[in-house]
Amino acid sequence: MKTFLYHRRVQQPQKIMPFTPSAILFDMDGVLVDSLDAWWKALNNALLMFKHQEISRDEFMHTYWGHDLKANLKRLHLNPDVAQFCNITYGSHLDFVKIYADTRATLQLLTSYRKAVITNTPTDCALQILQKFDIEAYFDVVVTSDDVMKSKPDPEIVFKACDLLGVDVKKVLLIGDTTSDVKAAQAAGCMMVGLRIPADITIQSLSELPSLLQ
After folding, report:
1. pTM of the full predicted structure?
2. In whole angstroms, what is the distance from residue 90 CA to residue 100 CA?
3. Are 177 and 2 in contact (CB under 8 A)?
4. CA 150 to chain centre
5. Quick one: how far is CA 137 from the chain centroid?
6. Which of 22, 39, 95, 128 could form a disulfide with 171 if both were Cys (CB 3.0 to 4.6 A apart)?
7. What are φ and ψ of residue 182, in 5° steps?
């Protein structure tokens, strides 16, 4: 799930790549696919099952989107068992997940780079999404919230991916769209490419990424 970074007046970063990355780490939700509505509906189904008041789409988007599911349930003062039910019911909402139009073409142009998905989405749900759109094969590694003690914005997931890829964290790019991604990149010491958010380099669409690496 996600947390949005509200726009503020910042100096527009230059679109200059100072090095050739040894690997590229991609957030999944909001970068490769649009899954906001699927997660919102799945969470509300779980909340209803456990007799908890539903949350509005706006509240979900601005308060819970971008955070680990278990962390969100803790903030809602709910039993962790809700997470298991939410993950199960998520599969029935996959029709609401959409792949962005430029995702496949961009990944195809980046086949020479080692790549990883780093996502706060649990493993079962993440694999369902990657397999649904047949993009799992583009990635050497998939690291989820199930693989670390602390999810983004903690940098552990970044370090984990770099260890699995066998690369120096200072020589990778992290592509993300939320404050959780930015904070994780900063804490890990890697370069951040922000998708429509302020970062070391900011792009407006994923399709801009290959040209930055030429």
Report:
1. 0.83
2. 19
3. yes
4. 14
5. 18
6. 22
7. -60, -45
